[in-house]
Design a protein that fits this description.
CATH architecture: 3-Layer(aba) Sandwich
CATH class: Alpha Beta
Number of helices: 8
Largest sheet: 7 strands, parallel
Number of domains: 1
Shape: globular
Distance between the termini: 41 Å
Strand order of the largest sheet: 3-2-1-4-5-6-7
Strand content: 15-25%
Order of helices and strands: EHEHEHEHEHEHHHE
CATH topology: Rossmann fold
Structural class: alpha/beta
C-alpha cells in the first residue's frame, strides 16, 4: 500500500534531537509512524520538536539528559522503558565540535568532545541494547562524520572522536548481528546546521567550503532524515557494519 507508514509500531530514541540533524531525523521517523523518545540537554528546545512529531501523527516525549553522564543515561533508560516498554531504534546524534590547534586544547576541551561524541554513544548503547534484543529487529545509527575518514586542520578532537565512533559501529554491528539488530554510521559532510553556522556566516570560510564540495552547495538536513528512514525500514535489513557518506562528493576527491 502506497500510504502505509514504514515505521508504525517502532519506538525510536534520538539523542541531540533539539535541532539540526537530530531534529530532521526525529521528524522523518515520526512521519513514518515511529513513536519518539527525544533527548538533549535543553528541555525547552526539545518540546517544539516533540510537538512537531505529534503534529505528524506520532507519539513523542522529550527528556533532558546529558549523554556524557552515566547516571543521567540510566535515569533516561528507566523513564523511556517505563513509558514505552521497549526500544527498536537508537540514533546517537548528540555531538559537539571544538575547533582549535592541538596545542591550544585543554584536557577539559578534549574530554568534552570525546565524552560527548564517543562515550555518549557507548553509554546509550549499553543502556538500551538489552531492551532491543529478542525482537528480531533493531536499528542503531551512529552519526559519524566525513571527519572519521578525512580531516582538516583544527579538528583533532572531533576527528579522533568520530573515527573512534566508526570503529565502535563496526564492532557493535558484528556483536549484534545474531539479534538481527543492524548498526550503521551516517557520515554527513558540510550541512546547513547550527554547528556549522560559524562557517556559513563567515563569507571567506563559506566560499572556501563550497569550493571543496563538488555539488557546490551545503547539504540540507532533510536528506539525512530520508536516509535514516531507509536504514530503519525493512529496506535496510541487509545493511549493517558500514558507514554511509552523504557529503556532496567531498571525500571522493
Amino acid at each position: 500500500m502506497s500510504g502505509e507508514r514504514k515505521l508504525t509500531g517502532r519506538v525510536a530514541v534520538v539523542t541531540g534531537a533539539s535541532r539540526g540533524l537530530g531534529r530532521a531525523m526525529a521528524l522523518a521517523l515520526a512521519r513514518e509512524g515511529a513513536s519518539l523518545a527525544l533527548t538533549g540537554r535543553d528541555a525547552a528546545a526539545l518540546e517544539p520538536v516533540a510537538e512537531a512529531c505529534r503534529a505528524a501523527g506520532a507519539e513523542a516525549a522529550a527528556w533532558a539528559a546529558d549523554v556524557r553522564d552515566e547516571a543521567q543515561v540510566e535515569t533516561l533508560r528507566q523513564e523511556i522503558i517505563a513509558r514505552y516498554g521497549r526500544v527498536h531504534i537508537l540514533i546517537n546524534n548528540a555531538g559537539i565540535n571544538v575547533r582549535k590547534a592541538v596545542t591550544d586544547f585543554t584536557l577539559a576541551d578534549w574530554r568534552m568532545v570525546l565524552d560527548t561524541n564517543l562515550t555518549g554513544a557507548f553509554l546509550l548503547c549499553r543502556a538500551l541494547v538489552p531492551h532491543m534484543k529478542g525482537q528480531g529487529y533493531g536499528r542503531i545509527i551512529n552519526l559519524t562524520s566525513t571527519m572519521s575518514h578525512v580531516s582538516i586542520p583544527g579538528r583533532t578532537a572531533y576527528s579522533a572522536s568520530k573515527a573512534g565512533l566508526l570503529g565502535f559501529t563496526r564492532a557493535l554491528a558484528l556483536e549484534l548481528a545474531p539479534e538481527q539488530i543492524t548498526v550503521n554510521g551516517i557520515s554527513p559532510g558540510p550541512f546547513a546546521t547550527e554547528m556549522n553556522r560559524p562557517l556559513m556566516d563567515n563569507p571567506d570560510l563559506c566560499r572556501e567550503f563550497l569550493a571543496r564540495i563538488p555539488l557546490g552547495q551545503w547539504g540540507q538536513v532533510e536528506d539525512i532524515g530520508e536516509l535514516a528512514v531507509h536504514l530503519c525500514s525493512t529496506a535496510g535489513r541487509f545493511i549493517t557494519g558500514t558507514d554511509i557518506l552523504i557529503d556532496g562528493g567531498w571525500t571522493a576527491q
